[in-house]
Design goal:
This protein is of the alpha+beta class and 385 residues long. The protein is 32% helix and 21% strand. It is built from nine helices and 21 strands. The longest helix has 39 residues. The protein is elongated. The protein starts with 15 loop residues before the first strand and ends with a helix.
Length: 385
């Protein structure tokens, strides 16, 4: 590809502008779900932002009213709230929400394999946001969209771009499938701990130091890094969430160290996520929604406790003691201290930790590959458009 096309110096002199109605046909075949003779329904809730694949499906029997018929090769595009960037390829016979457009490539103007990447380009998506009308649920009108003009490369060049982009997508899909398989293996191995005839102890019976992160009104003087609850994930910290802050000397006793376990005690969609902190240098602190758990017990490995916190057994205990019903939930320290932890000999803990760590490391490496492929794919799309 690089020999055939210089992505850094694209010559767009021979490219042409087309209106969108020349690029793609809007398919408006309306059917009633009970009369559609298909068994798949796709609502906008089944399409993930920035994803060209449909990964969830509904059933026509669950919906009412006129829906749009769609066929393999069509693209479902969410015309409501275009900022959500929902556009995905159909690989089945089905119906979809009337809050979407169904597009089919005009093959005289655009390569069908190139169309989904064009629809996910910033140029197209930003234009869709600009022409959307309405307040709470801005919507695209076809009469506005069909007249919008876009610059496209010649068909032959589109095919070359499409081949490269699909190769990256195929690699990402394979890596995602492998990651999913490893995550199942991780949970299977982890949950096997609880299937044995073993005894349990409560977390409060283990020698552990606990403390909540910094509150918003604590004094600040020295430069440090603050990890909010929204940045805490089991296998990584979301770097874009971490902020530089100034921490007072009085708050220095809340500094976190390598080996600490960070546990989210509340927030919107963050409750129960935990992270094994593995950074050996720097001044790091957490916010008040994060409980820092520091294991100081010769009979329990801190990494063993971390892994146990990822289990379905602990998830059940978290769910049982969760408070709040408005989307922002929490769990109190008393409930956390009463979490039941399986008692294993220290050597057995080491064996489990070694195997579980190995799986996690492989998953992390796959995540890095997937992220790189995503960045490269987005970079190519931005270069083209």
């Amino acid at each position: 590809m690089n020999k055939e096309v210089d992505l850094n110096n694209l010559d767009k002199g021979g490219w042409q502008s087309f209106t969108f109605e020349q690029i793609a046909n809007k398919i408006s075949e309306t059917v009633q779900p009970s009369e559609a003779d298909v068994d798949i329904y796709i609502g906008l809730e089944h399409i993930d932002p920035n994803d060209i694949h449909i990964r969830r499906k509904g059933n026509p029997s669950d919906v009412r009213g006129g829906k749009l018929r769609c066929y393999p090769g069509d693209i479902i595009f969410g015309k409501r709230r275009a900022y959500q960037r929902k556009a995905a390829i159909v690989d089945f016979d089905g119906i979809c929400s009337a809050h979407a457009f169904v597009f089919r490539a005009n093959q005289e103007v655009i390569d069908p394999n190139f169309l989904p990447f064009f629809l996910h380009s910033d140029q197209f998506m930003h234009r869709m946001v600009d022409i959307s009308v309405g307040g709470l649920s801005p919507t695209i009108n076809w009469n506005d969209l069909k007249h919008e003009e876009f610059l496209l490369p010649p068909i032959a060049l589109q095919a070359k771009f499409a081949n490269l982009l699909w190769a990256l997508d195929e690699s990402s899909e394979k890596n995602n499938a492998l990651k999913h398989s490893l995550e199942i293996s991780y949970l299977s191995l982890l949950n096997s701990i609880f299937e044995k005839n073993i005894s349990f102890t409560k977390l409060k019976e283990i020698k552990i130091n606990y403390f909540k992160g910094l509150s918003a009104n604590e004094d600040i003087t020295g430069e440090s890094m603050l990890i909010p609850s929204g940045g805490v994930f089991p296998r990584f910290l979301k770097k874009e969430k971490i902020k530089k802050v100034n921490i007072s000397n009085e708050s220095s006793n809340k500094k976190i160290y390598q080996g600490d376990i960070l546990f989210n005690t509340g927030g919107k969609g963050t409750l129960g996520r935990s992270h094994f902190f593995n950074i050996s240098n720097g001044n790091f602190y957490c916010d008040t929604f994060v409980l820092v758990i520091r294991v100081n017990d010769d009979n329990f490995l801190n990494k063993y406790i971390y892994h146990v916190f990822q289990s379905n057994f602990i998830l059940h205990q978290i769910t049982k003691h969760t408070k709040g019903t408005t989307g922002i939930t929490s769990i109190d320290n008393d409930s956390i201290e009463n979490f039941e932890i399986p008692i294993l000999k220290i050597e057995t803990q080491k064996q489990f930790v070694k195997r579980l760590d190995s799986i996690e490391t492989t998953i992390e490496n796959l995540n890095h590959k997937i992220d790189k492929e995503k960045v490269l794919k987005n970079s190519i799309i931005k270069t083209i458009f």
